[in-house]
Amino acid sequence: MLRIENLQASIEDSPILKGLNLAMEPGEVHAIMGPNGSGKSTLSKVLAGDEGYTVTGGKVEFDGQDLFAMEPEERARSGLFMGFQYPVEIPGVSNSYFLKAALNAARRARGEEEIDPVSFLKLVRERAQWVGLDDSLLKRAVNSGFSGGEKKRNEIFHLTVLEPKLAILDETDSGLDIDALKAVAEGVNRMRSEQRSFLLITHYQRLLSYIEPDYVHVMVNGRIVRSGGKELAQELEDSGYSLFEDEEAA
Ligand code: ADP
Ligand code: MG
Ligand code: MG
């Protein structure tokens, strides 16, 4: 599903990712944990194709294709879903209009017909319920004036409607109260399948007690420095990141 080899990337000539390796198979849930400033958001933005970042080395394969040869829109149409730490607001475009356009672009890319209005309405109502998103937020402009929790629920709502092959969620848990956190986890858990993979990027262990990852990776200073099973998340919660930071420095 995803193969990252020796990835190096810079922001304004400062190297941030310094030889990152990661491989994910279909159906797997991986978590990347790491201290602030270790490059977690940089990784998600580089994979999304954000122009503010320069890839200076390495390669990434997504579903058998060279990711960096694909335009950002093409990545999305091909089934890569990105959820960001700070979801963007799109004034003037209603949430449901935006979602329908994105869904139809993905369907066309798969050689399927556009969804009919009745099925679309049924789908969005069902999925909004999964994540506890209020129906009124469907008509509002995307994320405009949404609270932090509503933005994150909306992000997962989009995920459940778009049914991507790979979802990368950056700090989806940050700033969420426990109800919103459970709603987000519910959305992700309902979408888990043998074909779909998730990469959860998080600073805290909290989300991982609701979404059980198959693998946990520790990221420090632009690299994965340790990988293990879900027990690694608990170990980090107990010991903190300093152990890994010291190892990295040594
Ligand atoms: P994380 O998500 O793990 O907290 P980030 O990927 O956001 O880390 O940041 C990694 C490093 O890149 C940090 O040292 C941060 O200060 C730096 N950085 C992020 N964005 C910029 C930017 N626009 N210009 C310069 N440095 C940046
Ligand atoms: Mg940060
Ligand atoms: Mg971040």
Automatic annotation (TrEMBL):
NCBIfam families reported in the protein's UniProt record: sufC (TIGR01978)
GO molecular function: ATP binding; ATP hydrolysis activity
The entry's keywords: ATP-binding, Nucleotide-binding
Family from the record: Belongs to the ABC transporter superfamily. Ycf16 family.
InterPro entries: AAA+_ATPase (IPR003593), ABC_transporter-like_ATP-bd (IPR003439), FeS-cluster_ATPase_SufC (IPR010230), P-loop_NTPase (IPR027417)
PANTHER family: ABC TRANSPORTER I FAMILY MEMBER 6, CHLOROPLASTIC
Protein name, entry field: Iron-sulfur cluster assembly ATPase protein SufC
Pfam annotation, one family: ABC_tran
Nucleotide-binding among keywords: yes
